[in-house]
Task: structure prediction
Amino acid sequence: MTTFVMAIICFQGMLVPSFVMACELFAAKYRTFAGTIIVNFWAVAMCVYAPLAYLLQNWVHLQLVISLFGLLSIPLYWYYTLVDELYRLACRSKV
Result:
């Protein structure tokens, strides 16, 4: 059960939703750039995980540290979801 929860919270599980959200937040003209930036952040994170894995020899501790980074980004998703909902309501003149 804990491995399942860690997999949900881990950065890998948030790559696709963040990519889609970045593409939806920008106009069609800038979507390619936004998607590229999101993928670059993923690549940098993978480069950071290699030295982290070297320092933390136990895979359980490594998984906990990686999951903590994912937990820190959950409030950002709630914020962006709220902003997106307010934007859609404003476009429909319901606010």
User: Anything to note?
Assistant: Residues 2-91 form one domain. The chain has four helices and no strands.
